[in-house]
Amino acid sequence: MPERFNARLSQPLAEFVDRMVGETGLYETPSEYVRDLIRRDMKRRDGQFVQESILAGYHDVAAGRVFASSGDFKADMAVLDRKEADGWK
């Protein structure tokens, strides 16, 4: 992807960006505003992934898909693979 891109905005969007930029806005330039929007979206998506992972963990606990860790990551992954293959029986 190029480091630079252009985007066409509808009139209402362009007017909104104009209000967000300049002496009365929160940002000095439209580029600064767009970069901030992208960064915030990245953080939101990362947070969403974490929330979904935590929720999946709660579902696993509720369904009884748990086991005691040996403290050895490779051994634990082997146990996990066997349990998943056996349908957690």
Whole-Å distance between the termini?
48 Å
Radius of gyration, in angstroms, nearest whole number: 23 Å
Mean pLDDT, all residues = 92
Q: Return the string of H and E elements.
A: HHH
Question: Helical content, roughly?
Answer: 55-70%
Shape: elongated
Q: Largest sheet at a glance?
A: none
Discrete helix count: 3
Strand content: under 5%
Assembly state here? single chain
Number of strands: 0
Question: What structural class results from the helix and strand content?
Answer: mainly alpha
User: Which residues form runs of ≥5 with pLDDT under 50?
Assistant: none
Q: Which short descriptors sum up this protein?
A:
63% helix; 3 helices; 89 residues; mainly alpha; single chain
Description of the structure:
- It is a single chain.
- With 89 residues, the protein is mainly alpha-helical.
- 63% of the residues lie in helices and 0% in strands.
- It is built from three helices and no strands.
- The protein is elongated and about 65 Å long.
- The protein starts with 10 loop residues before the first helix and ends with a helix.
- The mean pLDDT is 92.
What's this model, at a glance?
The chain has 89 residues and is mainly α.
Topology readout:
Layout: H1 11-20, H2 30-62, H3 73-85
